[in-house]
Each structure stands twice: as structure tokens, then as C-alpha cells.
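thread from #wetlab-drylab

HS: before we spend reagent money on co-crystallization trials with S-adenosylmethionine, can we at least see a predicted complex? here's what I'd submit
DV: go for it
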Amino acid sequence: MNVQNRTIFEGDNLHILRGLDSESVDLIYLDPPFNSNRNYAAPIGSKAAGAAFTDTWTLSDIDKAWHGEIAEREPVLYQAIHTAELTHGKSMKSYLIMMAVRMLEMKRVLKNTGSVYLHCDPTASHYLKVLMDSVFGKNNFKNEIVWNSATGVKNNVRTRFGRGHDIILFYGMPKSQFNMQYTPLSEAYLKSHYVYKDENGRRFRADNLNAPGGSGHHYEFLGVTKNWRMTEAQARQWLKEGRIVHQSITPGSRVKIPGYKRYADESKGRPALDNWTDIGALNSQAKEYVGYPTQKPTALLERIIKASSNEGDIVLDPFCGCATTCVAAERHNRHWIGIDISPKAIQLVNLRLEREVGFLGEIIQRKDIPRRSEKLPNYRTHKHTVYGKQEGYCNGCKGHFPFRNMTIDHLVPRSKGGTDHAENLQLLCGACNSTKGNGTQAELIARLKNTGIL
Ligand SMILES: C[S@@+](CC[C@H](N)C(=O)[O-])C[C@H]1O[C@@H](n2cnc3c(N)ncnc32)[C@H](O)[C@@H]1O
């Protein structure tokens, strides 16, 4: 990876993503604007005061070149965006184009053992899922996580149910890792499943020790002869340790069969499902609340980071806001990179890491675009961007030409040390390109003037 651990970038994430090495990141969490048609601002007086972003999209917000780029590189993706435009309108199209170009870069920087979590809400989650299927692969889809984000919110609308959840789309590459997370046992579950108490008042349940379907070990144990799941030596050991309960397996039943005492206080909890109701949304009284609009709870990020990364892995958040992902990653010894267009993110990451994790070391703050350490992609991939920049006009004769009739020209020819970076490229019509040959741009313009074309 060409960027160091604990780096926070201020700038448009598209440019910064394009500067990150390919296949270098283990986990990406992104919480972009949701196309909610709202403007967000932090409350005056809060630590985040001054932070604001708009979440309304029009075609003029997006770079013209992205259109062509998606249409050329990912025709299926472009088709999905076009369908969204037909059903939802131009604003959705603009939003999805903004997201799609970034998704393509995220896919490029993600390792083939990596995972990505896209946080959104029902405004656009259905369209975003189609895009994610197309970019990250439908077979790599793992979960649509429903996070109950509505703690304390009242339903003031009388024409529908209150909206109380966000959606997190989780994709894991074919070799991605997953560490199961557990949710605490609820009081209702304890009451219905851990029905016994021992002499110290510890709740336990009696686990069935039958061997499944004819397997196991056949012997007599506490007056019951059958196929047991454990060996006889193991059964005697558990009895000595007080782990065997000679009680009815189902409460109230007269038949008494030995069972294994499983204590509630030894349980890790229940393997987490995809509906997360145990992590509440932040309220203004929470210790970690800094007032940043749309700040997410650290516990949410901790679950994601623990599930889909290990210590030392690289976690990237390209819309990091007040740096919640960076705080959670630091707490769990992951390396992290944050990007946000708002300067507030840089200010808050320092404050939060010190206050919430006790981290006093150096955080790298950057505004420049990193340079990839790998070989640059073929310069022809820039053709759409340059076409968008020139709006379809030849940079020589100034005539307007369709995309396919334009040719790429190196402003400073490669033979003279010119590079393949986009800044050194322009589009010329075929006639102007052959007129320019190996000469300079000034020479081309002079020739065109001499021949009366300009
Ligand atoms: C929903 S908020 C993220 C909140 C964050 N998860 C947290 O807990 O604080 C979206 C963030 O995306 C940022 N943003 C919007 N467009 C961006 C872009 N093109 N590049 C980088 N950041 C962008 C906004 O400044 C905002 O902070």
C-alpha cells in the first residue's frame, strides 16, 4: 500500500481513490450521502460546528466524463443506472453515476480477500444493490443488514409507518474472511431457554446429549442406555465436574435423562443475524457524540471491523465524516485510511482518537493525491475524461466530433519525455493529429492558422 497507516485525506475521494494502489485494502466501509434531498449541518456550539454537506444531486454536480467512462467500461452498470433514471428520475441517475465511478475504484483497491460494507437507506438502497452486484459480483453478496437506527424517533407522519432503519450492503470477495459476531442473550431468551438455576443462582439449560442418527458411543450412563454424543470417559469426567444435570430435558416432562449443564454466563451470546437491533443510534447525550451530521455509533463500526478484518489489516473509509471508522479501527489495532471532503474530518479525528482511544501519536494529514507505486493503467483509459473536459471539441481545429472519431495525443510527445498522465493528454481529430505529428501544440496551431483552418 502506497499510503501509510493513520492517514486522513481532505479532498474528493474519487481522486484520492484513484491514487491508491490496486488490491491493497482489506476492508472498506462507506457511508456516503444517501440522496436524501436534504442539507446537513452540525449544530452550532458542537465539536463539529461548521461541518456541512448537501445531499441533493443534479447532473451539473457530476463530472461529464463519468458518463462516458461508465458507458464504455461497464455497459451493464450503465444500463442499471439508466433504468433507475426511467423509474426515479434524473437526480437518482446523477447520484448513482457519482456512486458508480467510486465503486469501480473501490473494487480496484480491494484485495481479493477483502470485504466491503455500503451504508445507505431505503431511498436508494435498491438501486445501489444492483450497482454493487454489478461491480463486486452478485455471488459475493453476503448480507443486507437492517440496522435499527431509530432509537427515540417518533413517527410524526400519519400516512405510513415510521422509518426506523438503515441498510448496510455487505459483500465479501471469494476468499474473504469472516469472524462470527455474537449478540447478548435477551431477557426473554434467557427466560425461555435457560430455565434452570443451580444452588448459586446461576442460570443454565440442559443440553441434549443424544448422538445424532445412529452415530456416537453406546453405553449405560446414570441408568440410561443408548447412543451418547460423548465417550464414556468424557461423560464420567463431566459428572465429576458437576456439569451433568439429571433432569427432564424439557421442563415438566417426567422422563429424566442426563443433560449437559450449559450456563448462560458462559455463553458468547447468539450468532448475530442480519437485523441489528442491539446497537442504538447516537443521541446528543452520548459520550462519543460530537455533533457531526449523520455521525454513526462506534459500536456499529466495531462490529463490522471485528467481523471482516483481523489485527494489522487495512481499513478504508472514503466518506469518513467525523472519523468513526478510524476510531473503531484504532481501538482494534487495525491500520486505517480516512477520506472526507470536509476539513472538519481532519480536525475531529485528532480530537476523537485522543479522547476515545487515548491515542496521542502522529496522524498523517494530506490534501494531495497519492501516486500509485504500481504501473499506471494504459493511457487510453483517460480518453473519456479528456473527451468530457474538451466537451467533444478537437483541441486543434475546434470542430465537434463524436467520441469514436477523436484520437489521443500526448501534448508533450512520449518521444520527448511526455508521460501518460491525464494532464499530458488531449484529443484531436484524425486530421489534426496527423498534422501535429511529433511537433508541438504551438506548431500545430500555427500550421492551422497558415492554412486558414483557424
Ligand atoms: C453520511 S456522512 C458520513 C458520516 C460518518 N460515517 C460518521 O460516522 O461521521 C457522509 C460524508 O461524506 C462526505 N462526502 C461527500 N461527498 C464526498 C466526496 N466526494 N469525497 C469525500 N467525502 C465526501 C461528507 O462531507 C460527509 O462527511
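DV: The CA atoms of residues 207 and 304 lie 31 Å apart.
HS: ok that's useful, forwarding to the group
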